[in-house]
Amino acid sequence: MLGEHRLTWSPVFSLMGFVTRVLSPYEFNPANFNPLREVVEQSIDFEVLQRPDCPVKLFLSATNVRTGKVKIFTGKDVSASAVMASACLPTIFHAVEIDGEAYWDGGYMGNPALFPIIYNCTSTDIVIVHINPQYRHEVPRAADDILNRINEISFNSSLLREMRAVSFVTKLVTQKRILGEELPHMLIHGIADDEFMGGLSSTSKYNADWDFLIFLRDQGRRCAGDWLAKNFAKLGVESSVDIDQVYL
């Protein structure tokens, strides 16, 4: 099944990849048409997410284009524009303007940003779902593969930096060199399938075919199911990943 969806070569997707390297989205899409916004607006009830008593705490990270700092949208700031900002790839979409500031995908500075979860949630468990392979066996040689790996490393870098800080604080808490409840002992878990994700070609990112999306969804559910079967008992008890070995 994977072979059917690799899309190693497709004239349409290859052309899209070429265009995004030569032209900016302001040039090939001057009208800033983005069908994803309509889907987001129709699918999500933002009024519920903005309510103070909403049981779901949602934190959306975006990168401020001008300052280079991470911006966290939560509570009343959660909106369709915030969602679009958090997923704005600058080679494909115009920067998203919110209150006079321009934003790109949050992955450049927080992928995901862990600090709002640590300081604003009572659970000590953080489950990270990886969508970019952290490790690849082969060194990329084709131009598309090189650019793809650069993006993967860039988007993983912010997570690795935060995990280094988490590891440092965890050791201080474990060694009782920090007392009190302001810095909880966080338990880290990771759901990943580097072999499967690494098997997808770089052009698959442009594939919005419904069958392909269903295929990815089903694969994600299988991966999550396998993880839960092996690690559910560790939730609230211990980390299921060795932070130093996996992230540092």
- What sort of overall outline do the alpha carbons produce when their principal axes are compared? globular
Gyration radius, to the nearest Å? 19 Å
Write down the secondary-structure element order: HHHHHEEHEEHEHEHHH
Number of helices: 11
Count all strands and give the number: 6
Main β-sheet, spatial strand arrangement: 2-1-4-3
Mean pLDDT: 86
Structural class from helices and strands? alpha+beta
* Residue share in β-strands: 5-15%
Summarize the biggest pleated sheet.
4 strands, antiparallel
N-C termini distance: 34 Å
- Helix content bin: 40-55%
Which structural traits does this protein have?
globular; 4-stranded antiparallel beta sheet; two-stranded parallel ribbon; alpha+beta; 248 residues
